Input
Amino acid sequence: MPTPSLPPRVVLSPLPTLYVYDHCPFCVRVRHLLGLKNIKYNLVFLANDDVTTPTALVGRKVVPIFQPQGTGGPAQPESLDICKHVDNDPRFGAPGLLKSATPRDDIAKWMDELAMPMRRLSRVRFSRAPLPEFVFQEARETYIRNHPLSDPGDYEDNFDRSTEYITQVQERLDELAEMIYSPEHCSPHGLSYDDIVLFPRLRTLTIVKGLVLPKRLREYVEFQAAAAEIPVYDYCAI
Output
């Protein structure tokens, strides 16, 4: 597997601040880009039941939230808007690291078809995992309440059916692996918004103990994780 090659380090004063949940794929989009652009920043994990902090920053409970001028400066929500801002602003390194998204209908179709078993596998595990947004029981309960599952709706029932859901996803992973161009970028035209959208969703799968990513997928996930300094969930897979 190739070694990530990053642009020159960007260290601003004050450092930008990013508010996230660790499990949130939209938050990982921004963390991914900041890592790929080699930008030093403050990373703040909010409790999942913290309404006060995000509301004070942007008027509602939402993550990610980015403060490009650090704590106390103006704040911006919406993951792709943040990514576009950062990648187009020369303060954050040379603009244009990411190429435009392409119509990856093949990947989108695969994700749509496997969305339900992946959701049932990941949500029940996130609610049990030792993640910073779930340090307190009230935060875990808030997550479960705000992320209901259709019948069966009980998280314990879904966890008990893990083997069924793992099989459904495992049987289709080789198909997805064939859609990945290389560890460095999923589409042939280079590093792009395709990767910003795909990597967080694949990282989520690593929370599932017993789900084995094919070599091509595993190399892609590990390369992107190393480049952006975003740990995968092998250490706490359930």
Observations:
- The domain at 107-236 is CATH 1.20.1050.10 (Glutathione S-transferase Yfyf (Class Pi); Chain A, domain 2).
